[in-house]
Amino acid sequence: MADTPEIDDATIDDLRARLRATRWPDAPAGAGWSLGVDVDELRPLVEYWADGFDFDAHRAALAALPSRRVQVDGIGIHVLHARAAAPDALPVLLAHGWPDSGWRYRKVLPMLVDAGFDVVVPDMPGYGFSDAPPQPIDARAVAGMWVTLMTDLGYERFAVSGGDIGTHVARYLALDHPEWVVAVHRVDGGLAWPGLDASTLSPAEQAFVAETDRWRTAEGAYAMLHRTKPQTAAVGLNDSPAGLAAWIVEKLRSWSDCDGDLWSVYTRDEVLALLTEYWATATIGSAMRMYHANAAVPAQQMARRVEVPSGFSIFPGDLVRAPREWLERTANLVYHHELDRGGHFAPFEQPALFVDELRAFLQHFRR
Questions:
Q1: β-strands 158-162, 67-72 pairing
Q2: CB 334 within 8 A of CB 310
Q3: Residue from 362, 342, 361 nearest 351 by CA
Q4: d(Cα 179, Cα 157) in Å, to the nearest integer?
Q5: With CB atoms counted within 10 Å of each terminal CB, which end of the chain scores lower, N or C?
Q6: What percent of the chain shows pLDDT beyond 70?
Q7: SS3 of 17, please?
Q8: What's the pLDDT tens digit per position in 228-284?
């Protein structure tokens, strides 16, 4: 496969035909987003995807990315890799989560290079333009793969930043491979794990645990399905682009700092770039299966404390915001800043803020 990701004409023609043939469900009057995706809001996006989205422009944008195709532990990995002009630039690995890919960091990549960092943005196995692993792998295994990737690229020490599943990849890089990791930056403190003894926690931490439980009950059904029966959902989502759009767009709206208006944060073309790539690569199933692997990670792994210097940039629109006491309990906290805007996809939603945060944290770790 060429280094540049490719989406052929036949795939686009088939996608357009499927979009035009969407069989829409009914919806109760006035339901809006209360029962999941608002069909009346999704329909115009699907229509634009079929007949307005510029696929050629999207393919040109993909071709302009600093893409590389490498083998890591026998799996083909798509990685964006850009070097700063300075020969002693600090390398930074950026770790994404679900339901995205390296897409999350495309806006900040050139900004970070201009700020003097070498930037490495890999698509996890089964995401984006990387190959799916033969069996589901967890965040800890991905961390080990990324050590191999970074050493193969010539880096002996590097920083890492992550969010969502990427926050766990970053954790395990620091926990299992601290000799390689200079510093860890995260945009969330994760979620409190089930079975945690809350009686030993501070009032703020107890409130965080309660909020985590509330979020899991109200919003976490998708994750339970991913953990238990991902292949069932994959059949429909891999066959219907409108269904795929519903599954992902609902999360982009719920998890971003947009006050219910997705288009106040994203353009239609930005969202459709992500959806087109999920469709063209048929990776929605392999991406969901990672939840199954992560669910099997023992709870004691979640309780390990990160001793590598850690920084947290907490954005107000994220799922559940961990208090400082929790961050200090779980990591060697040397930087903590709560922002006034931005959500779960902060590098894409607020790229300038994200870059400022990463620079502020990592300034002490430059050579």
A1: unpaired
A2: yes
A3: 342
A4: 8
A5: C
A6: 99
A7: helix
A8: 999 999 999 999 999 999 999 999 999 999 999 999 999 999 999 999 999 999 999
User: Residue 142 and residue 144: Cα distance in Å, rounded?
Assistant: 5
**pLDDT confidence band for 367 (50 / 70 / 90):** low
Question: Is the model's pLDDT at 142 over the cut of 80?
Answer: yes
H helix runs in the chain, sequence order: 9-20, 39-51, 55-63, 108-114, 139-152, 165-176, 203-219, 221-228, 230-237, 241-255, 268-281, 284-295, 299-302, 324-330, 346-349, 351-362
Which are the contacts of 296, defined by CB distance < 8 A and separation ≥ 6? Answer: 138
Measured CA to CA in angstroms, residue 301 lies from 142, 194, 275, 281, 295 at distances of 15, 13, 33, 32, 11
CA dist 77 and 152 (Å) reads 12
Chain length of the chain: 367
pTM for the structure as a whole: 0.97
Structure tokens at 105: 């960091």
At 108, list the tokens.
């900040």
